[in-house]
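Saturday, quiet lab. Running sequence design on the structure tokens for the scaffold JK sent over.
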């Protein structure tokens, strides 16, 4: 899929910055507090050097991997993201259909603007579902039932939102509940007529997975209700154990950074975890996932599937993650920026093709033919075997 003069995820982010109203761009790009965690995510990747191994025949090199019993075209997938259709109506659908076309996983968020059933009808075999357990167990059980009925076999339970992260950009722009857009935000939206027109003509983004719970609630009351369902300070291991018992397929816990928590996840029977600081959107002082990954791999050996997200932007970053102990990675923001930069039909496939080609290029430079060959030998200074 041709992507014009757009060759990297940073080119996509630069285009997205111009095309989206400032408040929407800030909502996607921004992080918690001073955004130290966002910066740390990128800095720590840049610090990792990869050591090539010379003169190995890489003519049969490929990017395919198997995870949770399924073969995918590359070791990366689309991270769950709520409110994606704020970028453009149809964003969730376009990302899911590109994931199917290119055979990578697409993880639908509880807070998505498109329903589980709609995405299952587009990409049944590539769909993972992300659950916010929230405070109401009946609602969570209903979502799990719907995911099961839709054929989902990988449930990703996000546990790193005990309370909503404090994101100053959203507060300044008035993008919070209740919605109070600042005058600057309103004027700026007017300066993006293409976005405005698409938003006016398209379906209004709503909490598609909570439509049945709306009843006679006003829009504001519903938004507050959903927001309560997303965060939950009372969440604990007993609740996750109940979810484990109720879910018959692969269970992944998303939002872990502590090796002790990874061991606890293994004890309750999770199949994998997503090592993640939520893209720096929750705890500003959190370590980056790439820096804690080797300690987590060392603690749990090969007993847990380790997926990493937060700050992955290039094929080299995917290789750095795999060499540091990950089995797979997810990317968030770059997929939304791809849609903003290149549109619904070119953006999602374009970014997948770019990342896959970059990863394969790096793999071959390192002297590997299979992604699972990446390990501590490729880290410089050498880190011992992480896999
Ligand atoms: C706009 C946006 C919405 C998000 N919504 C969710 C969500 O609903 N559920 C969830 O588990 N994570 C959510 N995340 C976090 C991502 O799943 C992922 O952890 C993070 O974006 C990875 O970092 P990266 O954006 O640097 O790749 C969201 C991230 C963004 C940018």
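Result came back. Writing it out in full:
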């Amino acid at each position: 899929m041709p992507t014009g003069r757009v060759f990297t995820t940073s080119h996509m982010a630069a285009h997205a910055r111009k095309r989206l109203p400032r408040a929407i761009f800030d909502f996607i790009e921004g992080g918690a507090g001073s955004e130290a965690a966002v910066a740390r995510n990128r800095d720590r990747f840049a610090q990792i050097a990869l050591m090539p191994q010379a003169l190995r025949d890489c003519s049969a090199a490929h990017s395919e991997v198997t995870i949770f019993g399924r073969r995918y075209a590359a070791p990366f997938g689309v991270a769950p993201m709520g409110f994606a259709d704020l970028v453009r109506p149809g964003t969730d659908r376009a990302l899911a259909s590109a994931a199917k076309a290119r055979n990578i996983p697409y993880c639908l968020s509880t807070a998505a603007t498109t329903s589980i059933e709609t995405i299952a009808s587009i990409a049944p075999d590539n769909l993972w579902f992300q659950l916010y357990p929230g405070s109401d167990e009946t609602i969570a059980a209903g979502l799990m039932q719907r995911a099961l009925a839709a054929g989902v076999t990988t449930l990703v339970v996000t546990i790193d939102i005990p309370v909503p992260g404090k994101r100053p950009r959203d507060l300044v722009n008035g993008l919070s509940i209740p919605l109070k857009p600042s005058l600057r935000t309103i004027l700026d939206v007017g300066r993006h007529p293409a976005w405005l027109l698409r938003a006016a003509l398209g379906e209004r983004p709503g909490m598609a997975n909570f439509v049945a719970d709306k009843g006679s609630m006003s829009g504001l009351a519903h938004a507050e209700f959903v927001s309560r369902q997303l965060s939950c300070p009372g969440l604990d291991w007993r609740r996750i154990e109940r979810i484990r018992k109720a879910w018959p397929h692969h269970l992944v816990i998303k939002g872990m950074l502590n090796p002790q928590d990874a061991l606890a996840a293994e004890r309750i029977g999770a199949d994998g975890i997503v090592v993640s600081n939520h893209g720096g959107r929750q705890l500003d002082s959190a370590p980056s996932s790439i820096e804690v990954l080797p300690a987590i791999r060392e603690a749990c050996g090969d007993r847990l599937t380790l997926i990493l997200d937060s700050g992955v932007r290039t094929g080299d970053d995917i290789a750095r993650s795999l060499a540091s102990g990950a089995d797979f990675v997810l990317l968030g923001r770059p997929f939304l920026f791809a849609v903003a930069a290149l549109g619904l039909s070119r953006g999602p496939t374009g970014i997948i093709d770019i990342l896959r080609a970059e990863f394969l290029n790096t793999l071959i430079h390192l002297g590997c033919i299979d992604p699972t060959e990446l390990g501590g030998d490729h880290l410089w200074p050498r880190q011992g075997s992480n896999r």
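Notes for JK: The two ends are 34 Å apart (CA to CA). The pocket of flavin mononucleotide is lined by residues 28, 41, 79-82, 109, 111, 130, 158, 254, 276, 278-279, 281, 309-312, 331-333 (CB under 6 Å). Ask whether to fix the surface positions before the next round.
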